[in-house]
Amino acid sequence: MNLTLKSIKKIIVAVIGFTILCIGIFMIVLPGPAFIAIPVGLAILATEFVWAKKLLDKVKQKILGQKKK
To answer: For 28-31, which contacts have Cβ atoms below 8 Å and span 24 or more sequence positions?
Structure first.
């Protein structure tokens, strides 16, 4: 198995990002700041994955849209 430094970084970012994202999703039902953990998890994933960047942009728009109302 030939893992380059770039692919190892991507795997580490994925594991950390998905872990924080899952914790945030659990916090929707359990006590805790889900509204902080979910965007943080997405921000970590967005450093390596385009789909996470797009989803993070949508979350930012929703948050900013709600504050303006």
So the answer is: none
